[in-house]
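Record type: ASSEMBLY
Status: queued
Input:
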Amino acid sequence: GAVVSQHPSWVICKSGTSVKIECRSLDFQATTMFWYRQFPKQSLMLMATSNEGSKATYEQGVEKDKFLINHASLTLSTLTVTSAHPEDSSFYICSALGQGALTGNTIYFGEGSWLTVV
Amino acid sequence: KNQVEQSPQSLIILEGKNCTLQCNYTVSPFSNLRWYKQDTGRGPVSLTIMTFSENTKSNGRYTATLDADTKQSSLHITASQLSDSASYICVVSLFYGNNRLAFGKGNQVVVIP
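Status: finished
Output:
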């Protein structure tokens, strides 16, 4: 079945540094990918919608210069947390919208990436 | 106010017993309603997806129902297993595109032996 892979699964970084998280659709093409943030015992919060070949659409309150999103190919979107601070520590999840006969109309989620900023 | 409300927030059930989770939504019009299972620290996994014209959908021991008139959905877990311990999330897609999703906060289920 369709799989979305995230890397890394967990990362610890120093305050002030930048961290990149990758989201790949492994066996299907995804023109649209989504990035979410989830705090403990909270629901998923959409941060931005990533469209291949164009600028990402950010949700209200999400700093686009803080969370850089690049969707350079149909199978890869990246989220870069720039100048990370401890309050950026969270669980980041991506999802990809499947299209076509086999994966159409289904949203597949990655396994998530734990970010801890110290 | 959240567009998708789930209840109960959490529950503990004995292994082998059944349970029903509720999802009420205010999103209208909507395209489809999905139930996901999310294990702690993992990404959500799709269980069922129903369009507004469908009333029920099953996936193994999971059965989802939908009443578009009352804007209610339920997820029934039959003969629960320890591996069913997870958060179950109700997600509603807005009518004008799958890229707009409204998430519930999830039902936290703990199955004990």
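Annotation: The CA atoms of residues 49 and 96 of chain B lie 17 Å apart.
Annotation: Chain B has a mean pLDDT of 90.
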